[in-house]
């Protein structure tokens, strides 16, 4: 694994390459995705069937073929290994408990002059969840997207997932049953995003779309934003690790590979203050690579988008990691909590050597749908509020409008909005009769 030092003369060039890790060619695929969206808007299910036959390689004979039968979900749930079913329930309960703590509250505030101001929080009516398929199936992503929607109070949840060769992961079906999903469809890629954004004869239009996907899915979400809300535009998975001389190299190595095995485009970046830890971790990465079921994918990721940086101090290491703003950040230092106040930008922060990133992927409780590509500087993890919206509440008494009305009308006058000003002043005139 490549090791670079902040003292190297070419370090800035190398680091700029790391910061550019998520520069994907959205512009290059926008035309393709826009054409897919246009076809869905124009032809609905007919276009969906064409796209499935082209990309997922199976023939859709009827509209019903697009649907996943809830009975199949229950059958899968009943048939999975008991220990695996128990693991699903542990994950479900922990994720639900965590997200229940996020529920925002409606509130009212009463002023002395009789003004009542407040905020009403409501769930969206219908949420669309995109669950990836293809190289791997992710039942955990179903839990992470469905549970916050359920906690938010969304009444109707729509799931779309690709099914190459008309095959669907049994554990994903079981997770759908556990979450009470009744509307799920065998549709993937940009076609699924368009179908949920605009609706077809079979798939209902939703209010918000969440869930990760490839560049075509990310581009489609960007293009339909405004027609619906979205959670974020996520890129390939990534991990950052801060490590000092106390960190165990074999822990560091396998944790770096836990993201590399996702995708050839995934990024695994470690910053350490110790040359020996850097060297030994690189050796351990090579040792572990040979044991992985997805060695080819992980090796390309590590070779193309992995790096170990040796920093001169932990302060420098943290500053660099804040600039990277990774999706996942592990802090593998002697006193991990002492560094927490200085970490500004990360999707999820894993503190201590017994908190590997996969714990967060599956059942710690916090959401694993996280901002990537430095967008943790302004995006948050998927949460309950992604499935809710807020309405302002305003109520002025006679005393309140008498007290504040003329100032309001004056501001309207300065903007040339005479009807605005008059709407206030007619009430002042009436109140002063």
Automatic annotation (TrEMBL):
Residues at which substrate binds: 237, 259, 262, 328, 361, 415, 420
InterPro entries attached to this UniProt entry: Ald_DH/histidinol_DH, Histidinol_DH_monofunct, Hstdl_DH
Residues forming the catalytic site: 327-328
Cofactor: Zn(2+)
Pathway(s) it belongs to: Amino-acid biosynthesis; L-histidine biosynthesis; L-histidine from 5-phospho-alpha-D-ribose 1-diphosphate: step 9/9
EC number: 1.1.1.23
Binding positions (Zn(2+)): 259, 262, 361, 420
Free-text cofactor note: Binds 1 zinc ion per subunit.
GO biological process terms, semicolon-separated: L-histidine biosynthetic process
Gene Ontology MF, one: NAD binding
The keyword Glycosyltransferase is annotated on this UniProt entry: no
Catalytic EC class: oxidoreductase
Keyword annotations: Amino-acid biosynthesis, Histidine biosynthesis, Metal-binding, NAD, Oxidoreductase, Zinc
Key word NAD present: yes
Pfam family, one: Histidinol_dh
Cellular component terms per the entry's GO annotation: cytosol
Catalytic activity: L-histidinol + 2 NAD(+) + H2O = L-histidine + 2 NADH + 3 H(+)
PANTHER family: HISTIDINE BIOSYNTHESIS TRIFUNCTIONAL PROTEIN, HISTIDINOL DEHYDROGENASE HDH
Similarity remark: Belongs to the histidinol dehydrogenase family.
NCBIfam families associated with the record: hisD
Functional description taken from the UniProt entry: Catalyzes the sequential NAD-dependent oxidations of L-histidinol to L-histidinaldehyde and then to L-histidine.
Name by which UniProt lists this protein: Histidinol dehydrogenase
Species of the source: Arcobacter caeni
Encoding gene (name): hisD
């Amino acid at each position: 694994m490549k090791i670079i030092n902040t003292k190297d003369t070419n370090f800035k060039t190398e680091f700029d390459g790391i910061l550019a890790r998520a520069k994907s060619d959205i512009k290059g695929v926008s035309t393709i995705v826009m054409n897919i969206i246009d076809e869905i808007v124009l032809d609905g299910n007919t276009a969906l069937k064409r796209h499935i036959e082209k990309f997922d390689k199976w023939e859709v004979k009827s509209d019903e073929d697009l649907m996943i039968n809830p009975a199949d979900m229950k059958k899968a749930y009943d048939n999975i290994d008991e220990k695996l079913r128990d693991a699903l329930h542990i994950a479900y309960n922990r994720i639900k408990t965590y997200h229940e703590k996020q529920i925002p509250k409606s509130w009212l505030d009463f002023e002395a002059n009789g003004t009542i101001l407040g905020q009403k929080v409501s769930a969206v009516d219908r949420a669309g969840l995109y669950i990836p398929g293809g190289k791997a199936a992710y039942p955990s992503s179903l839990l992470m997207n469905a549970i916050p929607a359920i906690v938010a109070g969304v009444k109707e949840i729509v799931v779309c997932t690709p099914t190459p060769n008309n095959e669907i992961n049994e554990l994903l079906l079981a997770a759908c049953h556990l979450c009470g999903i009744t509307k799920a469809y065998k549709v993937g890629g940009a076609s699924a995003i368009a179908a949920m954004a605009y609706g077809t004869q079979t798939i209902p239009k939703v209010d918000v779309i969440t869930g990760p996907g490839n560049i075509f899915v990310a581009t489609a979400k960007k293009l339909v934003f405004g027609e619906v809300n979205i959670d974020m535009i996520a890129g390939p998975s990534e991990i950052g690790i801060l490590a000092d001389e106390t960190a165990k190299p074999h822990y560091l190595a396998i944790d770096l590979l836990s993201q590399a095995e996702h995708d050839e485009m995934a990024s695994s970046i470690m910053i350490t203050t110790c040359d020996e830890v850097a060297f030994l971790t690189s050796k351990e990465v090579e040792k572990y690579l040979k044991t992985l079921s997805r060695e080819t994918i992980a090796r390309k990721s590590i070779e193309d988008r992995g790096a170990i940086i040796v920093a001169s101090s932990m302060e420098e290491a943290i500053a660099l990691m804040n600039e990277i703003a990774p999706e996942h950040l592990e802090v593998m230092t002697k006193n991990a909590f002492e560094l927490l106040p200085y970490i500004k930008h990360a999707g999820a922060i894993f503190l201590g050597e017994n908190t590997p990133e996969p714990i967060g992927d599956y059942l710690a409780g916090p959401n694993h749908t996280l901002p990537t590509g430095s967008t943790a500087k302004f995006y948050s993890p998927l949460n309950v509020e992604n499935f809710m919206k807020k309405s302002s509440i305003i109520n002025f008494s006679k005393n309140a409008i008498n007290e504040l009305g003329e100032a309001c009308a004056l501001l309207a006058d300065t903007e040339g909005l005479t009807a605005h000003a008059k709407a206030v002043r007619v009430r002042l005139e009436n109140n002063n009769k």
